[in-house]
Amino acid sequence: MAWSIADVARMSGVTSRTLRHYDEIGLLPPAWVAGNGHRHYEEDDLLRLQQILVLRELGVGLAEITEILDHQADRVEALRTHHRRLLAERDRLTTLAHTVARTIAELQDGREVREMPKINRPENLFEGFDFSEHDEEARERWPEQWEQSRAAVKGLSTDGVARFQRETTAQMIRMAEFMVAGAPVDDPVVQTEVEVHFQSVCRFWKPCAAAYKGLGQTYVDDPRFKANFEEISEGLAEYQRDAMAVYADTRLS
C-alpha cells in the first residue's frame, strides 16, 4: 500500500513542505513519484519517518539522522536504542517537572506569610535542564546567528552561565505570573518584561522584528521548547510568543 504526500502529512503532522525538504536532502525519498510529480510513500518510508521524528525529538540534527539511518544494520535494535533514549528523556522531564513544582511551592510559601519569596537551595532551580539539545538544530537553521551565539557563550564564565540560567528561569516564572493574573500581552508591565527577554537574547545575537517574532513562534512550534514553558504553566509558550510579537511590532519595526 502507498500513501500520497498529503496522506503522510495528515497522519504524521509533518508538513508537505518538510517532507519535500527531507526528499531533497536525501533523508526521506519517496518510494516512487507519479507522472504528475506527486510523491508516494510505502510502509518502510513511514517507519523511517517515525525514526526521523523520534531522533528529532531527542535533539539530533538532520545530518546526523541521515548518517544513523543509512548505516543502521537492524531496525528493531535501532528502535530499542531510540526507546532507551526516550525513556532517559522522560526521566529528565520528570525531574524538570519536579524542579518547577518545588520552585512554585517555595515561592508560594513566601507569599502566604507576606514575605519576599525565598529559594532554599538555588541550585535546585536548574535540576533537569538541558540547554545543549537545541545546539545542532540552531546551527543548521541560523548558522550566522549560531556563530555569534557560540562566541558569546565562550566568553561567559561558569558563574556567568549559572547567572544567565537563573535569570532565564526567573523571567519565565514572572511571565507565567502575568498570564495567570490575566494581564494582556500589550500591558506595559508585560512589555517591560519582554524587554528584559529581548535584551537577554541580544547578549547572544541581535534579532530584527521578524526574527524575534520567529523565535517566539519557535517556542510554540518546537515541542522541546514548548515543553519547557508548559512545565511552568500551561499556555505560557503562546503567551510569551504573543507578547514578543507585540514587542516586535511596537519596538523593533
Description:
Keywords: Activator, DNA-binding, Transcription, Transcription regulation. It comes from Actinoallomurus bryophytorum. GO terms for molecular function: DNA binding; DNA-binding transcription factor activity. Pfam families: MerR_1, TipAS. This protein is mainly alpha-helical and 253 residues long. The protein has 3 domains: 3-71, Multidrug-efflux Transporter Regulator, Chain: A, Domain 2 (Orthogonal Bundle), CATH 1.10.1660; 88-128; 130-253, Globin-like (Orthogonal Bundle), CATH 1.10.490.50. It is built from 12 helices and 3 strands; from the N terminus they run E-H-H-E-E-H-H-H-H-H-H-H-H-H-H. The protein has helices at residues 5-12, 16-24, 43-57, 62-71, 75-112, 135-141, 143-154, 158-180, 188-202, 209-221, 223-232, 236-252; strands at 3-4, 32-33, 39-41. A 3-stranded antiparallel sheet has the order 1-3-2. Helix 6 packs across helix 7 and helix 9 packs across helix 12 (236-252). The N and C termini lie far apart (50 Å).
Give structural attributes.
3 domains, about 70% helix, Globin-like, 3 strands, Multidrug-efflux Transporter Regulator, Chain: A, Domain 2, mainly alpha, 12 helices, three-stranded antiparallel beta sheet, about 250 residues
Short overview:
The protein has helices at residues 5-12, 16-24, 43-57, 62-71, 75-112, 135-141, 143-154, 158-180, 188-202, 209-221, 223-232, 236-252; strands at 3-4, 32-33, 39-41. It has 253 residues and is mainly α. Helix 6 crosses helix 7, helix 8 runs antiparallel to helix 9 and helix 10 packs antiparallel against helix 12.
